[in-house]
Design goal:
The chain is an alpha+beta fold. The protein has 5 helices and 7 strands; from the N terminus they run βββαββββαααα.
Length: 202
């Protein structure tokens, strides 16, 4: 993960918040030294009393020293790069946010909030997956054997699965409805991230 400025990347590792980046602030000793060497100063914890971060893309008014490289200007564009091997069994998601988010909520609370929201949606997907399996079983039973179970003996879930299997077989589109519904819900999840973050800020 490459980062500069005061935006942060946080990864959820089995529900535990882990930082993938660091803030670049004018008061950090190495940042302060570079700012001074570039002819700038730090006042009120800001570069030249104005900018609250010491690294950024743009902000060219702080990059006017003709004899210095872009990396050594008062406000540098050089990112810090954090190397971390992903654990696909335990790493769950990454949250990217600016200081507007992190000043309102700490990383762990943010991970807890997002994790709870995503879990609710994954539960819906799991329910559809279970219904799909029941529909498959119901369809196979109808095709391979006589089903002596009466309608009144069937559970609501089995009735729904049987109706779904019959509908799919009648239309010649095996499992199409359920698969489409699952895909719709899975696709909704990324689209809800923006809403989740807005709820965090509110």
């Amino acid at each position: 993960a490459a980062g500069l400025g005061d935006s942060r990347a946080v990864i959820s590792h089995q529900g535990h918040a882990q930082h993938l980046s660091k803030d670049h602030l004018p008061t950090d000793p190495s940042e302060f030294a570079r700012i001074k060497a570039a002819g700038g100063f730090v006042a009120n914890e800001r570069v030249n009393g104005s900018l609250a971060m010491s690294r950024a893309f743009g902000d060219f008014i702080f990059k006017q020293h003709d004899t210095l490289s872009a990396e050594n200007q008062a406000v540098s564009c050089q990112p810090d790069i954090h190397h971390r091997k992903l654990d696909y069994n335990k790493d769950e998601f990454i949250i990217l946010g600016s200081d507007g988010l992190w000043e309102m909520i700490d990383a762990q609370k943010c991970v807890d909030f997002v994790r709870k929201k995503l879990a609710a949606n994954f539960k819906k997907v799991k329910n559809y997956d279970n219904l799909l399996q029941r529909a498959n079983n119901s369809s196979n039973n109808n095709n391979n054997s006589n089903n002596n179970q009466t309608e009144s003996q069937k559970s609501p879930e089995d009735k729904a699965a049987a109706d779904l299997a019959k509908n799919n077989n009648d239309n010649g589109k095996h499992n199409s409805f359920t698969e489409q519904k699952i895909l719709q819900d899975v696709n909704i999840i990324p689209n809800q991230i923006e809403t989740i973050v807005q709820e965090l800020i509110d």
